Amino acid sequence: MTIYYSEDHEWLSVEGEIATLGITKHAADQLGEVVFIEQKEAGDEFAQGDEIGVIESVKAASEIYAPVDGEVVEVNEELADNPGALNESPEGDAWIYKIKLSDASQLDGLMDLAAYNDMIG
To answer: What local confidence, expressed as pLDDT, does residue 1 receive?
Structure first.
């Protein structure tokens, strides 16, 4: 399993043609207490750079942008009832989507953990 990071603070854990997508711990820390998440539905298709959801915290609302082209195959429904899980386990149980990759070569444009850590300083 390989993990990739985007400049918009999403992570992708890729196994085969399915990627699990979430937000990084850094993003969760910056947002503060998450109170609501707006998610796409299974079957929704999107292109790299599209807005694919919104996370609302006590501080601000922040869009989730697609780091790659794909289709939502599963939505983490638990986040609707417990959006605060994004603060507790952003890079674990509180994943947002499982997506089917349309173009795996787009992963080459994302960062590894070392590059992401350099970016956030």
So the answer is: 84
